[in-house]
Amino acid sequence: MSDCNLCVVRSRSICSALDAGEIGALNAISRRRKLAAGDPLAWEGDDSILVANVVEGILKLAIGTADGREQIVGVVFPSDFIGRPFGETTDHTITAMTDALVCVFVRSDFDRFASEHPTLERKLLDRTLSELDRTRRWMLLLGRKSAEEKLVTFLLEMSERLNDNTCSRSDQQYVDRFTLPFTRQQIADILGLTIETVSRTFTKLKTEGLLAIPSGREVAILDREALECHGG
After folding, report:
1. Taking the CB of residue 86, how many other CB atoms lie within 10 A of it?
2. Which 8-state DSSP code applies to residue 170?
3. For residue 219, what are the β-bridge partners?
4. Angle made by CA atoms 66, 136, 195, in degrees to the nearest 5
5. Tens digit of pLDDT for each residue in 214-230?
6. Beta bridge mates, 44
7. What is the Cα Rg of the chain in Å?
8. Most confident of 29-38, 121-130, 156-165, 177-186
9. Residue 50 is inside which H or E element, if any?
10. C-alpha angle with apex 209: 166 to 179, nearest 5 degrees?
């Protein structure tokens, strides 16, 4: 069986639009690439050479600011598509935040394949529109919400993207539990806050009984309904 047939995210990725024969043809132009945490996949401003499906792990999209700082502008998860088909340059640096596995395509090969398979082009369009909707929500998050609303909205989204497992019977006080791939400084950078504000807000939510911090970067939501009310 091909890598595509064995792929754990195939049913959720853009490849789900393809039939068995098309999957075989796509597999012929793909290769798997492992990334260690911190490894770059593409650099901002470089020629757009590669596109990829995320199979395992989490990667960040970042741009450099005029004063030399890094601004995280997006995070991608398993089944997400990264890179810019039909584009000439890469708009942001793509870096693995955790150990990751990606299914990589030479962009020119992928562009040609997509042009020959309208169902895949439609899937790409759907993904692009979904990403546009997510970006609009993110603009609202950064522009109009309070610090607490920003952090709560961020944590709720992370719980949906990161948590595939329900709590165990011995741990039923937790509605869901997940491990953040970010430091608090990175969360602050993503949300346009200071690290002190992020830490104070975590403490406030914990004191109010909405969250628990079992260890390190682990977050457990204790009262999801109440937490959603804090999200604005």
Report:
1. 14
2. G
3. 178
4. 50
5. 887 899 999 989 998 88
6. none
7. 19
8. 29-38
9. strand 50-56
10. 40
Q: What is the pTM of this model?
A: 0.77
What is the identity of the amino acid at 58?
I
Helix, strand, coil fractions of the chain, as percent rounded to 5: 45, 25, 30
**Closest Cα partner for 62 from 47, 51, 76, 72?**
72
Which strands sit side by side in the sheet containing 93-96, from one edge to the other? 40-42, 93-96, 59-64, 70-76
Alpha-helical segments (H) within 163-210: 184-191, 195-207
d(Cα 118, Cα 143) in Å, to the nearest integer?
Answer: 37
Asked whether the predicted pLDDT for residue 152 surpasses 60, the reply is yes
Q: How many CB atoms lie within 10 A of CB 229?
A: 11
The residue type found at 142 is L
- Residues in contact with 119: Cβ distance below 8 Å, sequence separation at least 6, in sequence order: 17, 18, 22
* Domains defined for the chain, CATH in brackets: 3-141 (2.60.120.10), 145-229 (1.10.10.10)
Q: Which helix (H) or strand (E) holds 103?
A: strand 100-106
